[in-house]
Amino acid sequence: MKERAMGRRELLRFSAAGAVLATAAGASQGDTPESERAGAETVTTNADVLVVGGGAAGTMAAIQSARAGADTFLVERGTQLGGTTTTGGVAFPGLFDAWGRQIIAGIGWELVRECVELDGGALPDFSKVPEHHWMNQVRVNPFLYALLAEEKCAQAGVRIAYYEFPQSVRETAEGWMVECAGFGTRRRVFCRQIIDCTGGAEVVGLLNLPRLREAETQPGSMLFMLDTPDDPGRPAGALESLYVHGADSTNSRTVTEANLAGRKSILEKVRREKRRLTHLQPEAGFRESFRIDGETLVTVDDYTSGRMFDDAVCYAFYPVDLHTRGGVTPKPLRQGIVPTVPLRALIPKRSRNILVAGRCVSSDRLANSGLRVQASCMAMGQAAGAAAALAARENTTPLNVPLEEIGKTLRMHGAIVPPDNGRG
Ligand SMILES: Cc1cc2nc3c(=O)[nH]c(=O)nc-3n(C[C@H](O)[C@H](O)[C@H](O)COP(=O)(O)OP(=O)(O)OC[C@H]3O[C@@H](n4cnc5c(N)ncnc54)[C@H](O)[C@@H]3O)c2cc1C
Q1: pLDDT score recorded for residue 120
Q2: What is the distance in A from the centroid of ligand 1 to the CA of 51?
Q3: How far is the CA of 281 from the centre of ligand 1 (A)?
């Protein structure tokens, strides 16, 4: 995307304070400092594609968008990439395979495979159908995963801003102006396309586009490790989790409440069981909040019948997996069934120039309980990244990008696009 009327160089010339800060602070990644205001510097960022949220979906969306040639900017409110995989501690992404063959590959698989290889681990044999679905989830080292994700973003040319989140979104003649806040930073992002990968469709919410959610959502979980008291200093133990009922990722107040409640119950457990706490994730994992009401809504019938959508951009695979107060009893899919995700489920109804990817995909509750797993989120993210990059290039909206073009771009970057007739 071209620089706006007052470009980077002009702004630096016009703003003495900006020029000083640009040198002193490094004005990283092409940001344009505008002014210094009571502790918050205002910067302007231009991009073709803005990705919000750097979890399973957002990381792949950003890398795909940049690899497809779009100038891509990623805003993540946390400290690192990976979202639930890293910060939530759910470091066992699945499922990349179904019924004896790989159904999700592409950028997510590239990252997971390299992570396992660098860590000296072993990958599952996808030609074998496991006894239980979870056996083919891939265990990744979450620390390494976050580092590799950052490296892949840098190599693709994705610029990243941590500790920031959008506060307002406005339509402009060329796309969007998104105001983001971070500590000491106010940022205006001018972009053509947005991909909302926040988990709870938070940008879609800022735009007042319709979202869906249940009155009572599935519990979240706090992940931790305990060990016996007789071996201090040895960070060991198996990963355990405690449900956090009512955990809600919607805003800072509800996330604070969930974290406080999760940590309190772990402290109680440590005291009760007289064991050592050797590991604790910094944040609870959230299973469910808002989903979008998209151009297509994937129903549980679509999901469990393996409906082949005309505009399918990826596969998904996992049992229907709804957690309640009483626990969870996954309902496996029938032999041979492999659900698909349509492009229209990534597009909020009656919107232009915005996509979502990840667990906020347009779906009913039961379909979402299967669609929300990490490999599917990665595949949706990659598809959204391709659609957004092509839309930015052609100066159109993702719904108008020819599906063949999206498919071609995805295959070029290693993804499996339905119907692939088993060719992979
Ligand atoms: C306890 C638990 C167990 C699970 N078990 C499994 C499993 O075994 N296998 C599996 O594959 N999946 C599992 N899942 C599901 C899966 O981990 C998640 O659904 C998936 O990771 C969601 O990916 P995402 O990219 O949509 O969202 P997330 O991973 O949640 O990423 C969203 C990112 O957006 C950021 N963000 C949010 N709001 C904003 C904002 N306003 N501005 C900027 N950034 C923002 C967040 O910080 C985060 O980094 C589990 C989930 C939980 C909670």
Answers
A1: 97
A2: 15
A3: 14
